[in-house]
Design brief:
Elements (H helix, E strand, L loop, with lengths): L33 E2 L2 E2 L20 H22 L56 E4 L5 H11 L5 E5 L6 H6 L12 E6 L8 H5 L4 H13 L6 E4 L15 H19 L7 E4 L23 E3 L2 E2 L9 H10 L4 H11 L3 E7 L2 E2 L9 H13 L4 E5 L7 E2 L8 H11 L1
Parallel strand pairs: 3-4, 3-12, 4-5, 5-6, 6-7, 7-8, 8-10, 9-10, 10-12
Antiparallel strand pairs: 1-2, 11-13
Helix pairs in contact: 5-6, 9-10
Length: about 425
Amino acid sequence: MAVSSRRPRHRRSGLLTGRLALPHWAYATHRRPRIHGVGQQWPPSPLVRSPRRPLYRLWWSWAVLGSVAVILGSVTFLVTSNLPTSTLPKTGIDVRGSGTSAPSTTTTTPRSTTTTTRHTGQVTSSHSGNGVAHNIPLGDYAGESDPAGVAAFAAATGTHPTYATDYLDKTSGWVAMDSAANIKAWSTSPYRLAIGVPVLPGVGTLALGATGAYNQYFTTLGKNLVADNEANAILRLGWEFNGNWFTWSVGSSTDATNFVAFWRQIVTTMRAVPGGKFKFLWNPNGPSPTTYSPDQAYPGDKYVDYVGTDVYDNFWGAPFTPPVSWAHQLRQQWGLGWLAAFAAEHNKPIAIPEWSDEYRTDGHGLGDDPLFIDNMANWFATNDVAFANVWCYDSSSTYRNNLLDGTFPRALAMFKTDFA
């Protein structure tokens, strides 16, 4: 068979030219090309000039490979996007202010030496809504030793609490208080605790406490809290001390002097407990006027990390309306107006460990009051509150505060609007 004397043109192939280096005979078609009217031999001779291929065949291999890559990438994305997000360790960050006299810094420290990671009490909550207070770290009291109740509250309100409130035994003596038996239920929960600590659990006096006579009990308490994975708990020592219903009630200026000295003894003692990173919340009650000034009962900036108060929607004045009641919440002796000014003066972050709407059988609760919820939300946002723990629990038929029990439908709707 006659062949051309001209040497065949070698096609360049490879990655840089966009073609795969395949042997010539692999480009078979159903209709074999003809040379000079004669059927080409198979496989073709390397001396035979290959016919010019259409341009669309030059890139077919790369097109196939590109399609495969796109398909694999899509499948990988779909699979990985459905995997659960890995949980980052929670490390007990306090950014809004350590509350000590030294300048506060943002630190990341393990909550305890155990392998459990939890209790961040993070400053920016994971809320995804647009409510006026959706960036305020939120907590809840749903009953004693009840992390599941806090989770249920979160689900019902569309919020993401990172704090919780609970209390030590306040009537059964030092051993019962020190055991912190009910606190163990929180050890593996994701919530940072604000714990009510009864500085006189049914026994003792403020005057003796001021001398350091009870320090040993607070050393034991600190060790037990560290062992129970509560090393960074926020401790409300002698909460609502300006009321008249607890053993540690501060009713006079003399009581105030002893309370201050006792507080300092406790804080110094508990800060010395190995592994403890406790914070201390000075926590009067809003509607409890006293003959002494708040400054007389204040232990000093060195011994306090947060200042706060408990706020419930109740009122003993006239006219008995939500706007008038709210004005009273702001201007009373230990009220929100005083708290904002006091916190600014002492450069302390504000914490609200108890607050809620309130129904009372004596008629002094405002009941289903959405204005109270909205006003509190705006006050929190304006004053950059470190955390606010809702009391969502009916402690008796005389006082009802559970936003979820059906008593407060309008208040609950406002709560979801402002915080979710």
